[in-house]
């Protein structure tokens, strides 16, 4: 095995401090917003924007320590992500991953039953029922998992599954094309975009591939052909990629993608990203709104339809999209 593909025991122990490990390379975590929802409080912005079930969300990854980028804004422990592939003997089957994540998630959820302000109905649903929303975006790059299409199919087979979201960095366009060919695309596919041009991409995303920018463009060119809801998430870092001079570059990429939705979201100084950036790099909501309004002026086919101040995010939608933002 190539040393860079090895998920070391020391790294595994570090991951186990933050995530519920499931098998050789998968994991699950209960986020702040799910905890909030269990208390009957506000869920994450995806509840407002898309209508997902926050209290029944399973935020997981089938490629916990595998990524082809080392983005400066990543709040996950990307310093430990030395792995870019899977060997045959270590690749877990989708059913094993799903069962492992459900079990680990239930164990993690059980610890919240003592909340004084617990919403008992939401807690009971969250604890006893199969997750209705699967956010395949926790850590690492999910398209590196070779059986991702089978994983999506297995999740679809369960009648409790309502929505499946996958977030990709766009470095594996051939894997996305395969999902399209197989008919195994998720409910919504996210492309993470944080650079308007190649120079910024190399500075911010730091792909392991020499042709990383070309790979990203190939994914953008694939977007119009994908038969699912498509979203581009712009991660905006103050004083790094938010200048007015960046707006035309973002607009060209968005227009080229024909994406249904665009999320313009501030970088948040969380986790391991604080080793590289800080609170001074977070944008305020009025700055996100102003940037979005300038962006829309260059995108006549898009309009800003919503925002969420706590998450420092704005939502744009393509006027010709057949998809409502709230998922039926």
Can you offer a commentary on this structure?
Helices cover 33% and strands 17% of the residues. The protein is an alpha/beta fold and 328 residues long. The chain has a single domain (3-318), classed as Alpha-Beta Barrel (TIM Barrel). It has a 10-stranded mixed beta sheet. Helix 9 (212-222) crosses helix 10 and helix 10 (247-257) crosses helix 11. The model is unreliable at 1-5 (pLDDT under 50).
Which key phrases capture this entry?
11 helices; single chain; alpha/beta; 328 residues
How far do the termini sit from each other?
46 Å
Number of domains: 1
- Using the CA coordinates, give the radius of gyration: 19 Å
Question: CATH class, anyone?
Answer: Alpha Beta
Instruction: State the shape.
Output: globular
Residue fraction in strands = 15-25%
Q: Could you state the CATH homologous superfamily?
A: Aldolase class I
How many DSSP E strands? 10
Major sheet, described briefly?
10 strands, mixed
Number of helices: 11
Name the helix and strand elements from N-terminus to C-terminus, one letter apiece: HEEHHEHHEHEHEHHEHEHEE
- Class by helix and strand content? alpha/beta
Mean pLDDT: 92
Low-confidence runs: 1-5
| Strand adjacency order, main sheet | 1-2-3-4-5-6-7-8-10-9
Fraction of residues in helices? 25-40%
| CATH fold call | TIM Barrel
The CATH architecture would be Alpha-Beta Barrel
How are the secondary structure elements laid out?
Layout: H1 9-16, E1 20-22, E2 26-29, H2 32-38, H3 45-50, E3 57-61, H4 94-110, H5 120-128, E4 133-136, H6 148-157, E5 163-168, H7 173-182, E6 188-193, H8 198-204, H9 212-222, E7 229-236, H10 247-257, E8 261-266, H11 285-297, E9 302-308, E10 313-318
Parallel strand pairs: 3-4, 4-5, 5-6, 6-7, 7-8
Antiparallel strand pairs: 1-2, 2-3, 8-10, 9-10
């Amino acid at each position: 095995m190539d040393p860079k593909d090895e998920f070391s025991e020391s790294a595994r122990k570090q991951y186990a401090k933050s995530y519920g490990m499931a098998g050789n390379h998968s994991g699950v975590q209960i986020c702040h917003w799910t905890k909030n929802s269990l208390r009957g409080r506000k869920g994450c912005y995806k509840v407002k924007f898309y209508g997902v079930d926050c209290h029944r969300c399973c935020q997981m990854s089938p490629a916990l320590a595998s990524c082809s980028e080392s983005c400066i804004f990543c709040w996950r422990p990307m310093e430990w992500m030395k792995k870019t592939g899977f060997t045959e003997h270590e690749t877990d089957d989708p059913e094993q991953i799903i069962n492992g994540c459900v079990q680990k998630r239930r164990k993690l959820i059980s610890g919240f039953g003592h909340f004084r302000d617990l919403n008992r109905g939401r807690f009971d649903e969250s604890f006893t029922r199969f997750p209705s929303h699967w956010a395949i975006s926790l850590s690492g790059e999910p398209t590196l998992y070779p059986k991702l299409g089978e994983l999506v199919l297995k999740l679809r087979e369960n009648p409790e599954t309502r929505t499946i979201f996958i977030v990709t960095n766009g470095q594996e366009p051939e894997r996305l094309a395969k999902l399209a060919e197989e008919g195994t695309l998720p409910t919504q596919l996210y492309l993470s975009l944080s650079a308007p041009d190649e120079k910024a991409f190399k500075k911010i995303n730091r792909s392991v591939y020499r042709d990383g920018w070309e790979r990203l463009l190939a994914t953008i060119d694939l977007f119009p052909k994908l038969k699912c809801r498509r979203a581009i998430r712009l991660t905006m870092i103050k004083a790094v990629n938010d200048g007015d001079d960046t707006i035309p570059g973002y607009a060209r990429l968005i227009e080229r993608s024909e994406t249904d939705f665009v999320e313009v979201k501030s970088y948040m100084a969380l986790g391991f990203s604080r080793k590289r950036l800080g609170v001074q790099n977070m944008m305020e909501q009025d700055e996100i709104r102003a940037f979005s309004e300038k962006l829309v002026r260059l995108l006549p086919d898009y309009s800003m339809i919503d925002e969420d101040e706590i998450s420092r995010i704005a939502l744009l939608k393509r006027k010709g999209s057949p998809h409502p933002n709230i998922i039926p």
